[in-house]
Write a structure and sequence with these properties.
Distance between the termini: 96 Å
Number of strands: 9
CATH class: Mainly Beta
Strand content: over 45%
Radius of gyration: 23 Å
CATH topology: Lipocalin
CATH superfamily: Quinohemoprotein amine dehydrogenase alpha subunit, domain 2
Oligomer: single chain
Helix content: 25-40%
Structural class: alpha+beta
Strand order of the largest sheet: 4-3-2-1-9-8-7-6-5
Largest sheet: 9 strands, antiparallel
Shape: elongated
Order of helices and strands: HEEEEEEEEEHH
Length: 170
C-alpha cells in the first residue's frame, strides 16, 4: 500500500511540474514601460510585445503616437526591431532599435535618420505586466489620423524661424 502511494505521489508531482513548465510566462511578452533619453531630454515610452505562434509582434508608444514594430527579431537575450512613421516635413522616418533582455528589464539603444543625419537615443524599460492590451488612450492614439510628430513640428518651427531671421523678421 505504501509503495502504491509513493508511486502515485511521484506521478502526480511529475505531472504538476510539467503543467507548471508549460504555463511559465514568456520572457518577452507583455507591457514594458520606461524612458527614452536623447539630446531632446527624457521622454516616457511604452512597448508591448505579443508572441503569436513562433514569432513576435509589438508596438511602441511615445511622443510620436503608437507605432507597430516591423522586422521584430528575438535571438537569445537580443531583441531588434524597426518602426516607421510618416512626417509631413521630414518624410518617412525609420527608427531602428536594439534591446538586451535582462530579467524584467529591457535596455537598449535606438537611432533615427532625419535629413541625412542620424540621431541616437537610449531606452530603458521594465516589465509592468504580462498584458498585451493597449490602454484606451493608446488605442485612440493608434487610430487617430497621422499628423506631424513632435519632432517634425519642432523642425518646422526652426525652419520658419530661420527663414524669418534671414529675411529680417525674427
Amino acid at each position: 500500500m505504501r509503495r502504491s502511494f509513493i508511486v502515485l505521489a511521484t506521478i502526480l508531482l511529475v505531472q504538476l511540474l510539467a503543467v507548471a513548465g508549460l504555463a511559465q510566462q514568456d520572457r518577452l511578452q507583455g507591457r514594458w514601460e520606461g524612458t527614452t533619453k536623447s539630446f531632446q531630454g527624457e521622454r516616457p515610452v511604452t512597448v508591448i510585445f505579443k508572441k503569436e505562434a513562433d514569432a513576435y509582434t509589438g508596438t511602441i508608444t511615445g511622443s510620436q503616437g503608437t507605432i507597430p514594430f516591423k522586422d521584430l527579431k528575438v535571438g537569445g537575450d537580443q531583441v531588434t526591431a524597426n518602426a516607421e512613421v510618416d512626417s509631413p516635413q521630414a518624410g518617412r522616418l525609420s527608427f531602428n532599435y536594439k534591446f538586451v533582455l535582462q530579467g524584467e528589464t529591457l535596455k537598449g539603444e535606438g537611432a533615427v535618420e532625419v535629413g541625412g543625419q542620424t540621431y541616437d537615443f537610449t531606452i530603458e524599460l521594465k516589465r509592468v505586466s504580462t498584458s498585451t492590451a493597449l490602454t484606451e488612450q493608446e488605442e485612440r492614439r493608434a487610430t487617430r489620423p497621422s499628423g506631424p510628430t513632435t519632432a517634425a513640428k519642432t523642425i518646422a518651427r526652426l525652419l520658419r524661424w530661420s527663414v524669418g531671421f534671414q529675411m529680417g523678421r525674427a
